Each structure stands twice: as structure tokens, then as C-alpha cells.
Amino acid sequence: MNIVVGVTGGIAAYKTVHLVRLLTKGGHDVTVVPTEDALRFVGTPTWEAISRHPVTTSVHEDVAKVRHVALGQAAELVIVAPATANSIAKIAAGLADDLLGTTLLATEAPVLIAPAMHAEMWRNAATQANIATLRERGVHVVGPADGELAGGDSGPGRMSEPEEILAAAQALLAPGDLAGVRVVVSAGGTREPIDPVRFLGNRSSGRQGVALAAEAAARGAEVTVVAANVSADVLADVRHPAIRVLAVGAAAELAEVMKREALEADVVVMAAAVADYRPVQVSDRKLTKEAGGVPTIELVENEDIVAALAAARRSGQLVVAFAAETPEDEAELLARARGKQQRKGVDLLVVNEVGWERGFERAENAVRILGPGGVGAGVASGSKRAVASAIWDAIVQER
Predict the structure, then answer these.
(1) I want to staple 204 with a disulfide (CB 3.0 to 4.6 A). Which of 96, 138, 273, 303 is the partner?
(2) What are 355-392's pLDDT values in tens digits?
(3) 340 is in an annotated binding site
């Protein structure tokens, strides 16, 4: 495949050297197009040696071959890594004041960007608006990850690792193994109201469900995300032409929407953390200490949504459940997972160990995937997008 790798002026450019090496070792023909600022971090000789092609930033070289548009016309994929806040703004605005800009305007190939910047810059409203614009235009985004940044800071903004960018690129280059498949994914955690102020809830951020939706869309699926109390920052990762998002709050609302959306779905994935119980009575007014005494909250069990979806599934439909456990050891983890899989009647079950420092509200995850009959169908760990990829591999295998 003919791939153009654009490199912009960020410290993460050193990681892109490894990405280019991985692409060339994979048999791809790679042309590197750096910006002038990018060459302050990694020089021209390195890019030429690793790609085996001459490198320039100028639109005024090789004019006879109309190089400033020819690169984009010939590309089968364009990757920009790192994509700084400034470069993202320029791409969104359609600016073409260098060779990378003209290449991006001239290409009709898929474009994949890997943002890299400080957390404050990533969260800035201007950057988020630019990312949203690019996603609406069909540009694919991988990352950024949450981790250590230049200068000792930490937070969202770290460029995804080369292997993860490679996986995203391969998904775009290969025929989608989920093309034409209709998918419904639940994400987040339900909140059961006690009064207008308080609720019973859980610590699920929705990141794993969102990663599952993004991965499914990247592999060609038509995706609906039923998001239970998922923040706008997390939902930013599912701004994609093939993804629609439906927001819900409590378990009863999640159940209603999931049952409706599952009617037309080929694969149903229940990744949301659903409250097992809800208050029998919900106060119309805030419960106060001044009212006297300690309130007693009577609970009633919520419906087992995934069991209901499994019982109602039509022929050929796959239902996937998640189980978050706090076991004493791996044997207990697997025993509890197999028991849940059997009780709920689902096709696959993904189980992960959670705790104060793992699972919920983390950028990474580690799971075991159980196929029909409780047989192991895979083990995955790493970023939640990497885990999502492994889960879809198991689902595709089962289909």
C-alpha cells in the first residue's frame, strides 16, 4: 500500500520513526512528509533512511511532477502523527501552506490522525471543536492516550503508541470485517435517583464501551451507542459518521432503549455498568438533615437487562455481556464469570477484575473473553481500544 505519513512539530515525532519502520517492515511504500517544525525534532536523514524515499517540506520542489498534489492523489492512506493542536486547527481550516497541507487537501484516501499535546491544549474548546469537525468529515482519530507528557505533566494528550496507530491503520486498509453489521453497544453507568440531588451509581466512565463502538465503526459496522451518563470528553471518541449516540440515565431507561435498538441489531454488547437495585420511592424534594432522623432507603431489584436481551434475541444475533468482579483469585474470577454466562444465556462474556486502582476510570484494562460454554476465547490487556479490538476479534470469530 502507498502510505503518506505526515509528521508535525511535537516531541512525539520520535515515536513516529518506529511507526514508519513498522509500516515499511509490513511491506508498505511509505513517504514521509514532515513540517518544518517537525524537522527540529527528527531530522531529514532519519526520515529518508527509515522510509527509503527523499523527504521535503516544500511545495516548490519537483514541480514538474506536481508533487504538491501528486502525493495526495497517489496515497491509499494518509497518517498524521503526531498531530499537534496547531496542525489539527490547520487541517480543520483547510490551510495548505506547506507540502503536508496540500497533500491532505488533494487526497481522497482515508486520513488517520494521532493527536499529541498537553492536556490543557487537548481539552481546550477550540481543539475539541476542530476534532469534532474533522470527525464529521470522516477523518479517523486514534488517541490521545492518558499518561505522562513532556515536562513531567500527566493527563490526556499523549500520542498513542506506534503499535496502536499501526492497528488503526491496518483496520482502515483492510476490508472491514464488520462491514454491513449493525451493532448496539451500551456504555457508562446507570444512576438510580434517590431525590433531585442524589442517586445510586457506580464508577464506570464508559471508556470501554466507547472504545468498543469506535473500533466497530472503524471495522465497517453501523453503530448505535446507548450512553448512560457518559461525559462529553469520553463521547468525543465516538464522533464518527457511522455512529449515533442515544443518552440515557437510569436502568429502566437503558433497558427500554436497548430492547428497542436490539430489534434491528446483529450484535448487542452490554458494556454499561447497570445498578442492581433502585430505591422503591424517589423523593420529589431533597432529603435534608433538618427533617430529622436518618432516612431509610428501601431498594428493589432492577431488571437483568442483558438476560432479557439474550432471551429475546433472534436467530443469528449475538449478545455479549460484561462482568466486573472483585475475586480472591483467578479461579474465582473464572468461576463467577462462567456462572454469570450460563445464568444470563449470553453468547460471549467479557470479565475483568476491578478495584480501587483497576478497571473503572482507567485508561487501560485487562479482560478474559469467554465463548459459548464458558470456553476461553481470548485474553487482552492494554489500552481500552486495544482491548476492544481483541473483543471484536472474538465476536467476528463467533459470527
Answers:
(1) 273
(2) 777 767 777 888 999 999 888 878 888 888 889 999 99
(3) yes
